Each structure stands twice: as C-alpha cells, then as structure tokens.
C-alpha cells in the first residue's frame, strides 16, 4: 500500500465522518424544532381549553360544589345557604384565577 492511497483513505474517512456528523446535527435540530412545536401546540390548546362559561354552567358547578360540601357534613340540615355561598366563593375564585369569562 502506498502513502498516497493511505492518505486518500484517511481523507475519505474524514469526509464520511463529517457528513455523518452533519446529518446528526441536522436530525437533532429537526427533532428539537418538532418538540418545541409540540410544546407550543400543547400550551395553546391548554389556554384555549376553557375561555368562557355560560351562567348556566357556572350555576351547575356551584350546585355540584355545594352538594359535595353538604356531603362532607353528612347532609346536616340548616347549612344549605352557607354551603351554597362557600361553593360560590370557591367556583368564582377558580374562575377569576383561570381568567375565564362568564357569558350569557
């Protein structure tokens, strides 16, 4: 084997390894871009999930929360109004925290 042929083989190996490295970096960049797009889509879907509630939906949520409060108290009579007001505060607090609009 001559010196020239061994130099050519070494140069060819370097070229192949450079191409392989370039392909790897391109694959990483594409994968990174795809994962960032997925994250952006998930965030936008989460933000769009609940933007508004109707008054009827709000009322139903308060009703269910009041029932759960009463259930925890073994349905002791006489606390209905307190349970309703507590549930209303809880639901309205959640609505405000999540910046949800209540519409007609």
Protein described:
This protein has 104 residues and is mainly alpha-helical. It folds into two domains: 1-48; 50-104, no CATH class. It has helices spanning 3-49, 55-72, 80-97; strands at residues 52-54, 101-103. A two-stranded parallel ribbon has the order 1-2.
List the keywords.
single chain; 104 residues; mainly alpha; two-stranded parallel sheet; 3 helices; 2 strands
Structural class: mainly alpha
Largest sheet: 2 strands, parallel
User: Which oligomerization state do the chains in this entry correspond to?
Assistant: single chain
Proportion of residues in β-strands: 5-15%
Extended strand count:
2
Number of helices: 3
The largest sheet has its strands arranged as 1-2
Number of domains: 2
Cα Rg: 31 Å
Poorly predicted parts: none
**Helical percent range?**
over 70%
Secondary-structure element order, N to C: HEHHE
Rounded mean pLDDT is 81
Q: Report how far apart the termini are.
A: 87 Å
**What is the molecular shape?**
rod-shaped
């Amino acid at each position: 084997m001559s010196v020239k042929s061994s130099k050519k083989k070494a140069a060819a190996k370097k070229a192949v390894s450079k191409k392989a490295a370039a392909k790897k970096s391109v694959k990483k960049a594409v994968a990174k871009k795809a994962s960032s797009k997925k994250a952006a889509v998930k965030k936008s879907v989460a933000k769009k999930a609940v933007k508004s509630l109707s008054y009827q939906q709000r009322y139903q949520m308060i009703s269910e929360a009041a029932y759960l409060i009463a259930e925890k108290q073994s349905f002791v009579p006489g606390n209905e109004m307190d349970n309703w007001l507590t549930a209303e505060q809880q639901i309205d607090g959640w609505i405000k925290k999540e910046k949800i609009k209540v519409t007609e």
